[in-house]
Amino acid sequence: MVIKSSVSLREDQHAFAKALVDAGRFPSVSAVLQQGLDLLRQQDADIQADRAALQALLQQRANGSFVSADQLRARLAAQPR
Asked: Which end of the chain, C or N, has fewer beta carbons within 10 A?
């Protein structure tokens, strides 16, 4: 379903969108704006997925065993360089 909506663009934004249309990359300024919104939606989904993965990793680390600073230094020193 397509919903008509009125939007306001700055002059430079409209010029850029129009240039994309004129170059044949999009059929209309509306298509440019739709693509931009789709990209923002995907970016937001990616950010949410990254946050969820980071939270899971932090929770996993918090539930794991901890080593002292001396133990960590010893492990790092034992690794081949």
From this structure: N
